[in-house]
Each structure stands twice: as structure tokens, then as C-alpha cells.
Write a structure and sequence with these properties.
heterodimer; A: 259 residues; alpha/beta; eight-stranded parallel barrel; B: alpha/beta; Rossmann fold; eight-stranded mixed sheet
Chain lengths: 259, 214
């Protein structure tokens, strides 16, 4: 049976991990490769690097990080952040990334995802959606709506998240990385209605993201939210729970996980 | 030494680095002569079936590949490198393959469902089949020697192989249906999953394969 995936996400800035694995004896806690090796040993199912480097050197830096990681760790690696064009995708894949996650550029350039899926295959194209509950529709009896935001959540697009997810699937996205901006950083748990609606609307896998504070939240996202994978950052980085603990908890509750 | 065939279908570095991690050298080859000279061949690949054959043809690699396999050279196919061995694929109409293994490559049916967790309502299975799933070992080729039954491997695919003769099946996997996830016929071993992405378990397969030729 296909296992539900548990995916730690690492923010990488200037080639260094921000908020890396704490309280663990890593030789270099800021080294993405050391962090990746740690999560590999712990039984993470995949890894996500989110590149938040702002400098002009960004491409060179992240490519070298990806290259070093891919020679040490043999698990699926997704890289997101600042991908603008096909060449960025090609470079990342050649450096050893298995998938790239596209967010802002997918909105700004509607054919990018389509071209990328045709060129490199749907399996490596993840569309990241930052969704936020739209207040316009609240309390008026209409179903809940979520809007798509870009530029790291700063810019509203006016696009409906549900419609956007369906369109991206049509354009050849292989997976949706869905982040609830309302929940991100709150540790209150995933936005379950959002996750479930998107997961039911598309036939490609959905990764739930944003808001995990406990391992119970992972269960809720995977079962109630019907997500195919659960992404989390701080609960793993700060060692509130190990990935193994999380998986044992999920297994005890009847969720198929790889242990 | 193991030779990994580069025909423009995805990044081969992870396969090469996987071999290196286990202590064996592997080189990436592009030309017909290099394929003919190789002692053992690995054919990886992700993407579309049609492009796969088209690329092999345009690089004149089909004949040397068929010759090498026929000569009994150890061959390891990965993902698309498994599918292309078959007679034909349903991807984009009907596309012919190398026809080394008789059978067809078909798409997972839509609207497959499976029970989930402790909840009663089954969920729809997503396509592609993406993530970690177990294999049920039927027969063990030498490179699967160290792999226990029910081991997890990383999969990502929307199509699967249906061999005409069940005696080539080495392992199966369940995803809505039970499908062939590894075949073994003489010098040919090919798997649908990605050993190079399957952490320590996957590397054991690469190691065993490299051992048989060094």
C-alpha cells in the first residue's frame, strides 16, 4: 500500500539552513547537507529545500547546495523559491533535484508550467499554492473561498485557489504543494477544509503545509484533509518530535506510513 | 564498470552517485560504441515513453542496446528503462517499444479507490502513483538478493507494465490493482521504482548489480 509521506522542509538562505535541526549534534547545524543526512537517517520520505536567498548570486549558491546534497542523500529532493524560467528548472534538475516547486512564476507566466511539464515531465513539476481565506465571502452563506497569493504571500492575485489547482493539473503539474497562509507559523494545525477541498478537486497528489504544531495535526491533514503527504518544518527542526515518533503515532492510528 | 546510458531522459547523476556511494564506479555513456563496449548497462529515465524511444533512435543507440542485451550483458532498467523494453505502450495512442519483453505498458485506471486510515470512506487514488510503496517479491534476481519481501521503494509513474508471460515477473506492488514492479529475464533486471531514490534499501540493489560485473 502506498505510504503517506512525511516531508521536512528546510529554508535555505545564502547556502545555509535557517532554522535548521536544533539540539542535535550536527557537525555544522547550518549546513543543508548535514541537515539532509540527518533527516535521511530519521526516515523522512522526501525533502524540500525552500531557497530564500535574495542576492544575485542565488542561482550559483543553490545549485551547489543541491549538487552536494544529491551526492550524499538518496531520496527525493524538491527545490523551490525564485524559479522564473525553464532554464532555472533545467539547472536545478541537472544539479540533482528531483522536483522543482513553482509558485509566483506559475501565476505570472501561465504557460510556464505547461512548457515545463512537456519538457521535463509532470513528475518533476510541483506547483506551490499559497492560499488564504477570502474574507469577502465569509458570513454571507456562500461556501468558503481561498485566494492565491504570490511573492511569498505578499501579493494577492484574486485567483481562486480551487480553480487554480485544477488549472495547474490541466497544465501538467505533477503535484500540488498547498500552504495555508492563515495557518502558516501558527502551530494550530493545517487548514483542513482547504486541504480537503483541493485534494478532492484534483487527481494529482497534494502536500499539506502550514500550521503543524503537533503530530496529531499531521494525522488530521492526512486523514481529515485527505492529503497525500504532510510537510512540516518547526516541529521537526526544534525536535518537538522526531520523524520516527510521528510515523509511529500515525501507524498506531491506522495510517499507512513507511517505518 | 557499470555504464549508464545518457539519452536525454532526465538526470542520471543520481544513479551515478548512487553507485559511487556504494563504492563502485559508474560512467555515463552516450555513443553507440560506448554502449557496445560496456560490460554492464543501466538504462534509467523519466518522462514520456515516445520521447524515450525517439531519443534512443536519434542517437543510434537502439541497435547497440539490443545487441548488448542479446549478447548476455548484465542490464538494469529503471522506471522508463523498464517500460521501454516492452512491445508497446498506450501512452499517446499506441507507441511501439523495444519489444524485448512481450507485453504492454498501460495507464492506471481512473477512479481507483482504497480504504484510508481507520475511517470507513475510501479515498480516490491519485495518479501519478507517487511515493513509497512496498514490493512483493516473487523471484529474486541476484541484485535483489539483499532485499526482504515487503521492502519500501520510491515510485513515480502513471503507467505500468503488463508482461504477456508471468514468468518474467520478479516483484509486484499494489496500488488499486496489483502490478508488476520488477521483471527478471536472463541477464535483464528492470524495475518500475527508483533504487537511486530509495535510500539505503535502493542502494543495495545498485551495489549488488555493480558487484556482479566487477
Amino acid at each position: 500500500m502506498l505510504a503517506k509521506r512525511i516531508i521536512p522542509c528546510l529554508d535555505v538562505k545564502d547556502g545555509r539552513v535557517v532554522k535548521g535541526v536544533n539540539f542535535v549534534n550536527l557537525r555544522d547545524a547550518g549546513d543543508p547537507v548535514e541537515n539532509a543526512k540527518f533527516y535521511d537517517k530519521e526516515g523522512a520520505d522526501e525533502l524540500v529545500f525552500l531557497d530564500i536567498t535574495a542576492s544575485h548570486e542565488r542561482r550559483r549558491i543553490i545549485l551547489s547546495v543541491v549538487e552536494r546534497t544529491a551526492s550524499e542523500v538518496f531520496m527525493p529532493l524538491t527545490v523551490g523559491g525564485g524559479i522564473r524560467e525553464l532554464q532555472d528548472i533545467r539547472d536545478l534538475l541537472n544539479a540533482g533535484a528531483d522536483k522543482v516547486s513553482i509558485n509566483t512564476a506559475a501565476v505570472q507566466d501561465h504557460v510556464l508550467v505547461k512548457q515545463a511539464a512537456e519538457k521535463f515531465g509532470s513528475q518533476c513539476i510541483v506547483v506551490a499554492i499559497d492560499a488564504k481565506r477570502s474574507h469577502v465571502n465569509q458570513g454571507n452563506g456562500l461556501p468558503l473561498k481561498w485566494g492565491v497569493f504570490i511573492h511569498g504571500g505578499r501579493t494577492p492575485t484574486g485567483i481562486d485557489a480551487l480553480e487554480w489547482a485544477k488549472l495547474m493539473e490541466e497544465h501538467g503539474a505533477g503535484e500540488i504543494l498547498l500552504t495555508s497562509m492563515d495557518r502558516d507559523g501558527t502551530q494550530e494545525g493545517y487548514d483542513i477544509p482547504l486541504t480537503r477541498e483541493i485534494s478532492r478537486a484534483v487527481s494529482i497528489p497534494v502536500i499539506a503545509s502550514g500550521g503543524v504544531g503537533t503530530i496529531e495535526h499531521l494525522y488530521e491533514g492526512l486523514v481529515n484533509g485527505e492529503a497525500d503527504a504532510a510537510l512540516a518544518a518547526s516541529i521537526f527542526h526544534y525536535r518537538q518530535h522526531s520523524i520516527r515518533e510521528a510515523k509511529e503515532y500515525l501507524e498506531a492510528k491506522g495510517v499507512a506510513v513507511r517505518i | 564498470m557499470v555504464s549508464i546510458i545518457d539519452y536525454g531522459m532526465g538526470n542520471l547523476r543520481s544513479v551515478q552517485k548512487g553507485f559511487e556511494k556504494t563504492g563502485y564506479e559508474a560512467r555515463i555513456v552516450h555513443t553507440p560504441q560506448e554502449v557496445l563496449d560496456a560490460r554492464a548497462l543501466v538504462l534509467p529515465g523519466v518522462g514520456a515513453f515516445r520521447d524515450c524511444l525517439k531519443n534512443l533512435e536519434s542517437l543510434n543507440l537502439v541497435t547497440p542496446l539490443l545487441k548488448s542485451i542479446k549478447a548476455g550483458k548484465p542490464f538494469l532498467g529503471l522506471c522508463l528503462g523498464l517500460q521501454i523494453l516492452f512491445s508497446e505502450s498506450e501512452e499517446f495512442g499506441l507507441t511501439p517499444g523495444l519489444d524485448i519483453i512481450r507485453g504492454r505498458v498501460i495507464r492506471f485506471p481512473d477512479n481507483m479507490t482504497a480504504p484510508q486510515g481507520t475511517s470507513a470512506s475510501p479515498v480516490r487514488l491519485k495518479i501519478p502513483h507517487m511515493g513509497w510503496n512496498t514490493i512483493q517479491v516473487k523471484r529474486k534476481p541476484p541484485c535483489l538478493e539483499d532485499i526482504p519481501d515487503e521492502s519500501y521503494f520510491y515510485f513515480v509513474h502513471s503507467y505500468y507494465v503488463v508482461p504477456e508471460h508471468v514468468d518474467v515477473v520478479a516483484a509486484t506492488t499494489c496500488y488499486g490493482i496489483e502490478f508488476t514492479s520488477c521483471i527478471w529475464k536472463d541477464n535483464i533486471v528492470a524495475c518500475q521504482f527508483h533504487p537511486e531514490k530509495s535510500q539505503a534499501t535502493g542502494l543495495k540493489i545498485l551495489k549488488r548489480f555493480a558487484e556482479t560485473v566487477s
